[in-house]
């Protein structure tokens, strides 16, 4: 969809979203719950009271056809569970009745404007529009190295950012220039394609988000009496509406270039009641690990200019990681990516799930994955079904085989090498089964006294650790495996070596 078409749709939706229903007025914030109230005993008690038969009609007109007698409605039965943590799943697909329920009166959560980089400036529960790294209002985007991000956060989340060690570091950049191009991918719209050969572990890009906002409705603090009596779908529509209104406040503060970049992103939430800003955020937002409210009540998502262009595949070749100190998302290759290959990530947390489970997790994104793994579910599911049996401790197997001359020399190696090939075919190098199988192979070569293969697999273990998990203590410990002759003093060294 072109930018002008997106803008046209945005204007249409905006008109709808700015129209407050007739005979309604913005209510002052009254009886607003503290975040987490619902999960507290007091909150549960209050909510069950509010949703009990005959209780709701005292303060809010109840649209339910029958709220008296013994027959309980869906709302009465499930509302407390449904609203636990204020994080119900939002609508997806085509929703028949979008928009606000009749007679519903919106409320406006109070939003404070940040005007300093003082971590103690706001209370944990305050809702704040802030620029990170802190930038005076009116500053030009290009004047700040790495750019800046407009965020709608709680005071608690803002403090987490400002207190991150080293914040605000400039986002790291690849040594040889950006190794990719954003271009049209047949059947997929825009995507990101490598323009250089990339090795496992190579940095592709670090990027600050255009905007950051809560990835759930937890920030809203809706007054509970406004939601009681509504069906689940009506509550979802209310939450979508209120979240859109908050995003509008944030969007209005973005520099024009960032507004254009945001509106040019894909939106697959056109029929579920999401407003245009919310739809784009739901389609393109990435969760920012470690940025959350007190007690993990709300997590946050960022929408990016370039990273949000990455397409999904269950055969991933790159991995993203949120880095709070530079306030940027880092994208690295975790397996070799030849020039001309599309760089793809996974939108779901686990590509090692079975095909049907992955497709269910991808449903909110509004597309059917046609990657090689999804195209041959029988073959790919067979590998995934074996993952836990591949994820074994090598030592007991090695010890049993080393001295048992009734077993052939390739007793462990043959199936292990076959498993490695399967895992590489499925791009599952990040899974624990891959690392444990690499260990098994390397240890088998120790028993066989094969110096060359021990060093080769030792190096693959180090490279995999570096590419998938990055630097750290584990990587330092693994480096010994790649040293030639490191295992010559091992009690099992060469036990089965052929003379
Ligand atoms: Zn797939």
From TrEMBL:
Residues 44-76 are annotated as: Disordered. Pfam families: SET. It comes from the Eukaryota. Residues 63-75 have a biased composition (Basic and acidic residues). SMART domains: SET (SM00317). Residues 178-348 form the SET domain. This is SET domain-containing protein.
